[in-house]
Description:
About 5% of the residues lie in helices and about 40% in strands. By secondary structure, the protein is mainly β. The strands form eight sheets. Strands 4-5-6-7 form a four-stranded antiparallel beta sheet, with no helix packed on it. The chain is globular, with a radius of gyration of 27 Å.
Amino acid sequence: MRSQPLAAVGLLLLVGVGLFGLTAPPPAPARDEPKAESKPLDKVLPGLRRDGFVQLPNQWSLKPAGRHIETGDFPVNIAVHPTGEFAAVLCAGFGPHEIVVVDLNPERTRVLSRVQVHQAFYGLAWSPDGRQVFASGGEDEVVHVFDFDRGYLTKGRALDVSVPKKKGVVGGVAFDPAGKDLFAAVPWADAVVRVPLVNPDNKKVIAFSPPPAKKEEGKGEPPSPPDGRKEEKKENAKDDEPAAKEKDPQVYPYTCLVEPGGKRCFVSLWARASVAVVDLGTNAVVATWPTAEHPTEMVLSPKGDALYVACANSTKVSVLDPKTGKGLQTIACSLYPQAPNGNTPNSLALTPDGELLFVANADANNLSVFNVADAKTAKPLGFIPTGWYPTSVRYNPLDRRLYFANGKGMTPKA
């Protein structure tokens, strides 16, 4: 609503200038006036400016909406407690990796406690009953587990989610609706590990294999005609060949999302621009649905008629039909539809009625807001300014507030 008066004022100013230019008398003869000495431009250094904006080293400026609380170094994920009274924040920057618990009471919103872990990456989730919190252990190939009681984390332990014969890094984590099984994506091992919490040793590794490359016939140089000579065979041919690339990660499953019925698990595949569908009855991949590049976080509409996928190497959110995988629409989250890649949409949140979608644009320092009451036609509503590099956005139904994490904070410290 504010853009209309501003546009009107601009228009009036332009008309006034144009009218003045047409009716002004001819200029007086030029006089010999002393030349004014040029003054050096004022330096604008990174940090807080007099006008209240924060200047970044890249010459962008920030003036985020809302109230801000300092948590830790590079918060990467927010998980709102099932009651809506608390939030866990996972920090995984250059400083100590830790889980920070925030009291969301509007009258006393503050950090209640924090627990350091050896290493973390992205995954963070509460158990459905809210009594435990689970966090990615990064290269340690574990999921950190803590009991939760009135704002404090205790009895820390680790669940082994390593993949045999592969070095993994634990990504996103999720639960089945009953809270009996934990799913952990392991990007660098091309697998998802399913852990039954009653017997964690009985884990199941769901491996992802890229489709074999299709060889086109008739390509390449034609064979030479036989000339009677024998070709020499290399005894150490295998030693001269490079290591097989199949051993390197090919798919990079980033995070998991189990549908409410508990029959399928959706997995975003970083390196395949697609979402894989895992049948939880057979623990096998049964389908792969294409998305925009670098799919990361996913959210399912309350009605179950749309799967929203943030695609960080694009400007877009891919919207899929959860039943068929058919693309319903592609939502542009940039400032204008044809903008080049660069705003990095990486996190999503929906209101409980499924009508409003919030998208964190990390490299644009804002949140995109859309009306998605019609899953096939999103209506852009505008942008919410954030701090530096928003990494996570969550909506809390209890207080009807929006929470987002500023990965790089509010101001440069260098």
